[in-house]
């Protein structure tokens, strides 16, 4: 089994080698899928792109579909601890035996095509979902959109969550350029749904949709919501869409920013799986899906509370807007308790660390840089130096397990520790802290 899995795990991975694993173009992807029997053509899909929020939006869309009684596939990336987590059906990852057997069947194809890790993982996802006869496949884009490996799909709906300045070396250094890359998932005469807000990015997306003759739904034109409660345990809000009023929905993902993602997911569901549902059935599916996103989808790593006192939270945010959204939830909670906010942080190159440092300084965070075993990771000493240059109090860099031990020994009950910076932190989380 391990030999077959190595066929996947030994392929170039973006998390390790970045540009060397990013090979634009869809020729290899099409060759892989042709050799696997074009499984993507059997899928009814919702395709989700964006700088931030795409994983959460995809998970919430899938949770609503599962709650509505559909057999639902969800593809997100990167995985937290095992590659099979990228391909889940109703929250359950693909069996490792299935992965090994399927890779073994296609060894010569993989050796001929020489795909990247991501290309092969996506192809396996499509094959698995097709074999599982899912009613809906919710597919998160990996990077960009236009040239992303997932963009061989002919989806029922294309969804755009957010456009920001990330991966500028590959997607462009303006919002207009990045928006056009992400809008590349919009297909001819196929509905698109956008929550993008900057005017420059909105205009680019509207232009792409017009050239594709694709009906464009804008979230801010079609949905309004009112917050009733928001905290680390989730939130409650009421939502109005063009077709329904949802009163006091409970959302299990924490943070005010998740309410916007939830509204986008509800509209995505309304335009697809709930299009013919009566009001009672739609309300029940939305209420159940949003109320237990993790249970329905196996989606983790977004403001997950691992301990209550002292508070321990993990979030996989890796760029300034994502980390800012996390800090806006965690920091006030710790401050209200009268405690000190501690942060274990790792960072990879190209993620605007100086801006993240300014955010941490504004919240008086005490930061321990964490080493991570990936070629893209910044050395912990460099992280510490750049944080201190922005006025951040830092501790000596140390492995995550040691940092957690030190926090448990010295923390007051009112203190809090946030683990953030990348998905890799979850992978090195000691077993006693995992779900």
From TrEMBL:
GO terms for molecular function: ATP binding; dihydrofolate synthase activity; metal ion binding; tetrahydrofolylpolyglutamate synthase activity. Coiled coil: none annotated. It comes from the Bacteria. Residues 301-422 form the Mur ligase C-terminal domain. Residues 48-268 form the Mur ligase central domain. Functions in two distinct reactions of the de novo folate biosynthetic pathway. Catalyzes the addition of a glutamate residue to dihydropteroate (7,8-dihydropteroate or H2Pte) to form dihydrofolate (7,8-dihydrofolate monoglutamate or H2Pte-Glu). Also catalyzes successive additions of L-glutamate to tetrahydrofolate or 10-formyltetrahydrofolate or 5,10-methylenetetrahydrofolate, leading to folylpolyglutamate derivatives. This is Dihydrofolate synthase/folylpolyglutamate synthase. It comes from Salinibacter ruber (strain DSM 13855 / M31). The lineage of its organism: Bacteria, Pseudomonadati, Rhodothermota, Rhodothermia, Rhodothermales.
